[in-house]
């Protein structure tokens, strides 16, 4: 195969802290290279070097046989290297056609011309997307495809994708994979970062395992398995946690009766017990997001009732939810103030400022213990949140809610961006929290996570709750069946992620 990129002994740092410590990497045209690594291993930093947003200190890069070292993203783009970043955000007012061509060399063309070109591009790639709708109305999977089309429009030869599938449901991941295979079929190359080990095996030709700023191992995807990849990452085996097949122990924490939000959800009824982890599954348009937004008052219900500890309550806004001790971690990118520090992010919300020295020491001990337990990669807990890697920022957001004094905690994609090792810790912490009587409602597009973590799982389709399954009676196939309303037999969870 034709060599496109070669990285030799790349070193890079942030403020004197060495992050990349001699990366060796090569990539061929027509190849998808999976890149995995624990949180803070240096994946995003390396991609920053390749895409022109971070300058390396030493080492040599060659692109298409020529020396390469972009000083800016524009320069990288001009050399045919494009990046779709972790948690990318699109200006919601742009139409699909405008978003595809924004900041590309074709951006100056008239609206009509771009529209015609967008239609052709969408057809060529073989997906369904309306060029005239505003990107703000698209679901995350569709926005991801817009970003992929932008890479095609700017004729990128090397496309870097940093955890773009992190909260996409399996069937959207399958569509994305189909498009990526087509792109490499045209001779482009892709570097694909993910924390989903089964996914990387199904999409990549080779897999680079990064550890502590270096490519520790390079493997043929067809000759490895999830256990080997996990072992290479963690240096120990993944724990085999037992599923929570017994019913949840406690009294009722929350009851929802015939909850309706005009135009999105109808007559939803269910209850969650104290100490229960209740999963919610459904496609993006199923209504699960509208349901939780009604439960926390972001878009209040138009009819129906909510009871907390048996008492009817009104939830018309987030403040009402907080007053009733209902916490909500959404999955819409970072909710932490970027100016805030790691310590503030991890302090319990009931900690009092101006406490005496002894209290301050106790608080700091708590923070240090959380950093250790969640394996947050930092050399300075007094540093800014922005100095953490994406996955480590997510751990801080999650820890903030897990240590808050809530009776009901609603978590959307809590393990988004978190590596497989830290995921186990998150699960143990959720279990501990539920044992203290907190009721947890968990949204996740990763069905294996719902089946491994939840006592019961409610499945929504077309705005209705179509099934509530006890863990002991369900599996991933049964959940997909309810989600799509049609039979789906994959044989294994792993196979599902690669089917379209
Ligand atoms: N802007 C920054 N300033 C200072 N340090 C940073 C900055 N960005 C990242 N780092 C540090 O560099 C290290 C590598 O971060 P990087 O984002 O490359 O990791 P990653 O492998 O992409 O992790 P993740 O899987 O969590 O996205 C981290 O330990 C992080 O603390």
From TrEMBL:
Transmembrane segments: none annotated. The keyword Transferase does not apply. Keywords: ATP-binding, Nucleotide-binding, Repeat, Transport. GO terms for molecular function: ATP binding. Signal peptide: none annotated. Residues 5-237, 248-487 form the ABC transporter domain. It comes from the Bacteria. InterPro entries: AAA+_ATPase (IPR003593), ABC_carbohydrate_import_ATPase (IPR050107), ABC_transporter-like_ATP-bd (IPR003439), ABC_transporter-like_CS (IPR017871). PROSITE patterns: ABC_TRANSPORTER_1 (PS00211), ABC_TRANSPORTER_2 (PS50893). Pfam families: ABC_tran. This is Sugar ABC transporter ATP-binding protein. It comes from Paenarthrobacter aromaticivorans. The lineage of its organism: Bacteria, Bacillati, Actinomycetota, Actinomycetes, Micrococcales.
